[in-house]
Amino acid sequence: MLPNGTPPDWDWAWVDVAVPRPAHRLPGISMAGFGARAPVSAEIAMVAHPAVTLFIDLSEDEGFGCATGGRRERGSVAVGLLPGELRAGGRAGECLQIRLEPVAAAAVLGASAELSGMAVPLADVWGRDARRAEDELRAAASWDDRFALAAALLRRKTSARPPVDPEVAHAWRRTLARPGRVRVDGLADEVGWSRKRLWSRFRSQLGITPKRAARLARFDRAAHLLAAGHPAAVAAVRSGYTDQSHLHREAKAFTGLTPTAVAAAPWLAIDDVAWPRRNR
What we know:
The chain is 45% helix and 18% strand. The chain is of the alpha+beta class. Strand 5 and strand 6 form a beta hairpin. The chain is globular and about 50 Å long. The two termini are 33 Å apart. The N terminus is likely disordered.
């Protein structure tokens, strides 16, 4: 907080951002490290993204926090798909953010389907491994060492659980590759399943229906077009919305923000640095 008690406008100049080398990258998983330079507390609105997000708090005194639906969590958290209006931030410190595409999240977390719409303490998902991971990552000498440790942990978690059905994984990849432009019937035909079976397996394994996933992928594309400076009308057309009003309704539904506010959201302003397009 500022001396007068008001929250400051977010400025990424306060923050050092680290990204992993190719050797530490995993399919369907992206990581970025954030370290605050300035001793200030602030929060920013998160913008819906087609991933389950882990925030591992590496500060000394639970400097990170998330707030959604009138509930606030301090320290390391897991944020499921579609959390609604969500704010993240806190006191100056360090944090490792991990984005898990739903297929990867199902393997890493197991309970990813139950996380939809929620932000919960990471310990609720990983148990004692959460505290152990925090301690090991906090003690690491560099961000490169931290990414190596995190990648090893994620590999172990992935190998301990059965993968989602190949048909479900294929349907997710197609949905992400063509946001808002795939139909459930078409996906079902591609994998040789009935529409009902695909809908049921997709929802139970990824925690989201195919239709909702398509809406989220389409909104993610629109949000990045808005952040890149495109007018809302152009972003709507290029993302497959019927018109600008349609985009406005979806922006409010997913984030509680207007397209104008999404365009100015600090959450998206760092994307090209923290989440290079080759990783998305």
